[in-house]
Amino acid sequence: MLFANAAGALLIGTSYFLQGLLAGGSIAIAAGFTSLLQATIGHKFSLPIKLALAAPAIAFCFYLTFIMGSGMAILPAIAFFIGRISETFKSELHYRIANLFSTTIWLAYLSFTWFLPGLVFEIIMLTSNLVGIYRFHVKPKKL
User: Fold this and answer.
1) pLDDT tens-digit map of 115-135
2) Smaller CB count within 10 Å for the chain: N or C?
3) Is residue 95 part of a domain?
4) Is residue 134 part of a domain?
5) pLDDT for the residue numbered 143
6) CA 135 to each of CA 90, 92, 108, 121: distance values in angstroms, whole numbers, following the listed order
7) What pTM was estimated for this model as a whole?
8) Range of the domain at 55
9) Greatest CA span in the chain, whole angstroms?
10) Cα gap 139→132, rounded to integer Å
11) Helix (H), strand (E), coil (C) string for the chain
């Protein structure tokens, strides 16, 4: 599973870079790199380690936002941070709800950049989360 996450994040990050979306690309590459390291060593990292591994990408987003004046560049870092925090939740419902926030922030970033493949991907992720919340937490259980 982690290898698949790593491959997906690395491919998405590469596509963002190729489209000039430096903030989104750096965060996606950092997420892919973190997943690849976890898969290679055979266990998941704690939240502080994940954030430390992504620190250069997060710092780059801050640089783009506050030094270069690209206001939307901070959004991928915020979405990444929320996504990593959601991974620490024990409750699947809380995990899914937090991911709704992360996905919504990615959607906002990609809407402002008009990157259609990223928008489609995040819409699929949002739909998956909403279906999962309904299916496992809202839908009445059959007797």
Assistant:
1) 999 999 999 999 999 999 999
2) C
3) yes
4) yes
5) 66
6) 18, 12, 26, 21
7) 0.86
8) 2-138
9) 59
10) 10
11) CHHHHHHHHHHHHHHHHHCCCHHHHHHHHHHHHHHHHHHHHCCCCCHHHHHHHCHHHHHHHHHHHHHCCCHHHHHHHHHHHHHHHHCCCCCHHHHHHHHHHHHHHHHHHHHHHCCHHHHHHHHHHHHHHHHHHHHHHHCCCCC
Number of domains in the chain: 1
Name, in order, each residue with C-beta under 8 angstroms of 73's C-beta and a sequence gap of 6 or more.
22, 23, 61, 64, 65
Question: Would you state the structure tokens that stand for residue 81, as one six-digit string?
Answer: 């941070």
Asked if residue 143 belongs to a domain, the reply is no
Q: Are 38 and 2 in contact (CB under 8 A)?
A: yes
**Domain presence at residue 87:** yes
Tens of pLDDT, residues 55-103 = 899 899 989 988 888 888 999 999 999 988 888 889 999 999 999 999 9
Burial of 96-132, coded b for 16+ CB within 10 Å and e otherwise, reads: bebbbebbebbbebbeebebeebbebbeebbeebeee
pLDDT at 1: 65
